[in-house]
Design brief:
Layout lengths: L3 H32 L10 H34 L7 H30 L15 H12 L1 H23 L12 H23 L21 H7 L2 H16 L8 H12 L8 H5 E3 L10 E7 L18 H7 L4 E8 L5 H10 L23 H6 L4 E6 L8 H7 L4 E3 L16 H11 L6 E6 L19 H4 L4 H4 L2 H27 L3 E7 L13 H5 L1 E7 L13 E2 L3 H9 L5 E3 L12 E2 L3 E3 L3 E4 L5 E3 L11 H21 L13
Parallel strand pairs: 2-6, 2-7, 3-9, 4-5, 4-6
Antiparallel strand pairs: 1-10, 3-8, 7-8, 11-12, 12-13, 13-14
Helix pairs in contact: 1-2, 1-3, 1-5, 1-7, 2-3, 2-7, 3-5, 9-21, 11-18, 15-18
Length: about 675
């Protein structure tokens, strides 16, 4: 039988490993803040920093406890039954493995935060579905992968050596008292202490669930970087997993067919009793036109955010091209737009299918290839006589974009392999070459819908900016002092400037060549580049929508217009179809006064923007009298669009329990 002395010795080793792992979490937390200090807002105080350390320590108690659980079972637990002394080696090996993994996660977190402003999120689960080669090249080229791997390896080596010395430190014998009943009482007290400490660790530094801390309630500071630093990498990965599962399964939405009727009727704006989802999505063009444009160019501009169009950023000179288009009499502009998702492919899915983001990866679902969704853009314009083609700067294999666009009704697809280009990178050719190919190949023989997806404003940033005429002085005048000498940041701004310049040149040339045309210009997403370290929600996430050309006036988009990618199809149909034309869509037309936009995590109106899963919102417009929508309207809009889209994607057209109707 193993003695209490041996059990107590193993228990001390577990405690030492726990303390070491907890210290590693705290070390990486401080290091992350120091390395990424440029992302801290100017309003951060020492109180905020200490709060981040305190709450970070508490949540890391849970992470360290979780990691130590396995060696505790394998070493201390088994030691109760067998006396094999080499069991302790398992603890060292597991501890070493934890240290190595945490070291590499720490060094991966830094570029991940630079790109997504989060310490890991649900996009991790889409990595293997994306162009893995291109992602790897980007990481190597843009984020110095060899150097980061070397640093991670060195960090892991140093910490492993330190762990070995720490675990070899002296342990103490279990006290022996003269009376037997005192020994029993001492052992009982030890077990009670172990139990209480387990509860304390389980709930993150408290003895009750009422004060439990987790990733959902740990963002206690006013700074985005500090809130992300509170989460150690174990908690950040857990958050990514939970968010992925939550959206995939539509957790929190009542998915009973009867409830879907209520959601559908809300979207239809009238009572509808049907078991066919499409009956809820049927709409008619209200005003329309008898003189449609011959060509429609729908440009999805990579990372084109709305904030460079704001007056406070005029001195950056980033968006002069689009501003020039907006200034025309036959142009309409709305800044109150949200992307369908947080990535390019999510935005493309929203534009192509008209369905709200449901994290179901439409481009990989077999049902997406059986027939176009009724809400799909291309088939509905083809009913009006338009041929539909899709132009993409990158490879046709990326996210199966060629196969998907053709399956969703496009007649032709053109990728980087279909036209010449001297520049570009692994993600695709330069915008100049893409636009040139469109201008050369689009013919006037038939009315056409031409969807154009750009890529130059994306890392790795490889455009020859000097050759394109970019002068850093163009943007530095509008930068704060701490960014004026940051060549990488200026390079990113230069690529935005280049994308805007090429966009404006293309619109000018296409308008000259095809004067009877309509241009729809929208960003695919934002949340990649900001001057402020912690920008307001609007500056971080909003994208612009510009309508220009045939049939457009300044009044085409009302002042209160707001929406997202799912509102593009109905908005476009109001400009190209005759009154009474029947179509299908989840979203409503912005030309008819739709004043609410939503996506995977946010909502927007002409005056406010907020988070979809909380009551938090921010004003983004100086207009007087603007009030945020009431919570019941927010919930109705978001739940209805998500629920109907989710059901239509996952189960098909028929509202019936179970999966028998999947992808009808």
């Amino acid at each position: 039988m193993v003695s209490w002395n041996e059990f107590f010795g193993e228990l001390q080793q577990d405690c030492k490993l726990f303390v070491f792992i907890l210290a590693v979490f705290c070390l990486f937390r401080v290091s992350f803040i120091v390395v990424m200090h440029s992302f801290l807002s100017d309003a951060v105080t020492m109180k905020d920093f200490l709060a981040a350390m305190y709450y970070g320590f508490r949540i890391s108690l849970k992470s360290a406890g979780l990691l130590v659980l396995l060696p505790m079972v394998c070493c201390t637990g088994l030691r109760l039954f067998i006396s094999w002394k080499r069991l302790s080696h398992i603890r060292l090996y597991l501890g070493g493995a934890y240290v190595v993994i945490l070291s590499f996660l720490f060094h991966a977190r830094i570029p991940y935060y630079q790109e997504f402003r989060m310490a890991f999120n649900q996009l991790l689960f889409n990595t293997l579905r994306d162009d893995v080669t291109a992602i790897a090249y980007t990481v190597i080229e843009q984020y110095n992968l060899p150097v980061r791997l070397l640093l991670a390896g060195a960090t892991a080596f140093f910490l492993c050596k330190l762990l070995k010395r720490w675990l070899s430190a002296k342990t103490y014998s279990f006290p022996r008292l003269p009376q037997w009943y005192l020994n029993i009482a001492l052992r009982a007290a030890l077990l009670i202490v172990i139990y209480q400490l387990t509860i304390f660790v389980r709930f993150g530094g408290t003895m009750t669930y009422a004060y439990n801390i987790d990733w959902e309630n740990s963002g206690v500071t006013k700074d985005q970087l500090l809130n992300e630093a509170i989460l150690d990498d174990v908690q950040a990965l857990y958050r990514a997993y939970v968010l992925h599962e939550r959206v995939s399964s539509s957790t929190g939405l009542d998915m009973e067919p009867g409830r879907l009727v209520d959601y559908g009727s809300y979207l239809a704006e009238r009572p509808v009793q049907s078991t066919n989802v499409d009956d809820f999505l049927r709409k008619k063009v209200m005003v329309g036109t008898d003189s449609p444009p011959r060509h429609v160019f729908l440009i999805i501009a990579e990372s084109y955010a709305a904030w460079p169009l704001l007056p406070q950023y005029d001195k950056l000179n980033l968006a002069g091209g689009l501003k020039g288009i907006i200034a025309q009499d036959n142009a309409a502009f709305s800044p109150n737009m949200l992307p369908n998702g947080m990535s390019t492919i999510s935005g493309v899915m929203g534009v192509v299918t008209g369905l709200a983001e449901a994290n179901l990866y439409l481009n990989y679902l077999p049902g997406s290839y059986k027939e176009p969704y009724s809400t799909a853009l291309a088939p509905q314009l083809k009913r009006l006589g338009y041929a539909a083609d899709f132009w993409y700067s990158g490879p046709a294999s990326w996210e199966k974009i060629r196969d998907f666009s053709l399956a969703q009704g496009f007649d032709a697809f053109y990728g980087m392999g279909d036209f010449a280009g001297d520049g570009g990178n692994v993600w695709g050719c330069d915008d100049r070459d893409l636009y040139k190919a469109v201008l050369e190949r689009v013919t006037d023989s038939q009315p056409g819908l031409h969807v154009v997806l750009t890529v130059s404003n994306h890392s790795p940033y490889t455009v020859d900016l000097a050759g394109e005429g970019f002068e850093p002085a163009l943007v530095t005048a509008g930068l704060p002092e701490k960014l004026k000498d940051d060549p990488e940041f200026i390079k990113k701004l230069g690529h935005f400037w280049y994308a805007d310049k090429m966009l404006a040149q293309f619109v000018t040339e296409a308008r000259r060549k095809y004067p009877d045309s309509l241009f729809v210009i929208v960003g695919d997403h934002a949340d990649r580049l900001n001057v402020e370290a912690n920008p307001p929600l609007f500056e971080r996430y909003a994208i612009p929508l510009v309508l220009y050309g045939k049939g457009v006036t300044r009044e085409s988009l009302p002042e209160n217009a707001a929406g997202s990618h799912i509102n593009l199809a109905p908005t476009l149909l109001e400009l190209v179809a005759p009154a009474g034309f029947e179509y299908y869509s989840v979203g409503r037309s912005l030309t008819n006064g739709n004043d609410f936009g939503m996506n995977y995590g946010f909502w927007i109106t002409a005056g406010h923007m907020g988070k979809a899963d909380t009551d938090y919102n921010e004003a983004h417009s100086p207009r007087q009298g603007q009030l945020p929508p009431q919570q019941h309207k927010i919930r109705q809009e978001i739940d209805a669009a998500r629920a109907i889209s989710w059901w239509r994607i996952k189960f098909g057209k028929t509202l019936q329990t179970g999966t028998a109707a999947e992808h009808n």
